[in-house]
Amino acid sequence: MIVTLHGMSTMYCNIVTDIRIAGESSFSGIEFTEQKLLRYLDQGNEVESLMPLLERYGVEPRCINALKHIEVQGEKHQQQLAVCERLCAAARTIGCPVIQLVPLESLADLPAKEGFELTARNVKDYARIGDRYGIRFQLEVIAWAPLHSLQQGLDLIDRVGMDNVQMVIDFWHLWAGLKTTPDDVAKLHKRQIYGVHFGDGRAIPKIEPWQEFDLRGYLAGEGDVPVKEWVDAVKSTGFDGTWSSELLSARHWEWDLWEIARETRRRMIEYAV
User: N or C: which end of the chain has fewer CB within 10 A?
Assistant: First the structure.
């Protein structure tokens, strides 16, 4: 497994500091957030300037997370394609193999079949751009979005029909979406998985709205997700690629960032190795 620091876990710092934190906390990989990467580039920095830092700290770029709202239509979709092109070019330059795609709720008011088809059409557009750059895409289904189950994600990938799109297995989102079990994950072939988001969280009382930072603000072993079952399911497929320690927690973002990194890594190793 490639033990990877997720840039969401260290939200309140820049991309240069993320690389240093990852290296000094014994991570072998890093999952960049697109916000930090684009912010770095928008200030006139060249993406090539990250390469000496990655080499110095012995950290391999594994994913850029994420191109969000991938289902939007019209002019917004054209804007998204431009961002996709920019991210793919940056990814190729630094040797990052994967960009994440996240469908959200823009089409939630449409009939399910229509929303599905429009989303698939968009994903094919992104995949074609990635294909030109040698970049793959991992699809993340979101617990409260129209596409929220593993099977829906697999169906979308099948509909897209491109070789460079597969799944990321996000423990919390799949568990909280209530439609996917570890047994479903265990039936996958390892080639259908491009990454794992290792994390925990709590159950969603029906009377509450989705408050993601509150629901996901737990270190592994402190929430309600049966983390070991999800770990075992992924390992049973033979997948040995990117395992990313994701802690989406406003409370923990007030910790020392190196302490966050070390603790998320320690818990992932404890469960997964």
Answer: C
**Helix intervals (H) in the chain:** 15-24, 34-42, 51-57, 74-94, 112-133, 150-160, 171-176, 182-186, 212-215, 227-236, 257-272
Q: Which residue has the tokens 């770029």?
A: 61
Q: What CATH architecture does domain 2-239 belong to? A: Alpha-Beta Barrel (3.20)
Tokens 């699809």 found at: 139
Amino acid found at 202? R
Q: Is the pTM of this model over 0.70?
A: yes
Q: CB neighbours of 7 closer than 8 A, spacing ≥ 6?
A: 15, 18, 30, 31, 32, 33, 36, 65
How do the domains of the chain map onto residue ranges? 2-239
* Tokens 């999952």, located at residue: 31
d(CA 226, CA 194): 22
Tell me the C-alpha distance between 34 and 27, whole Å: 19
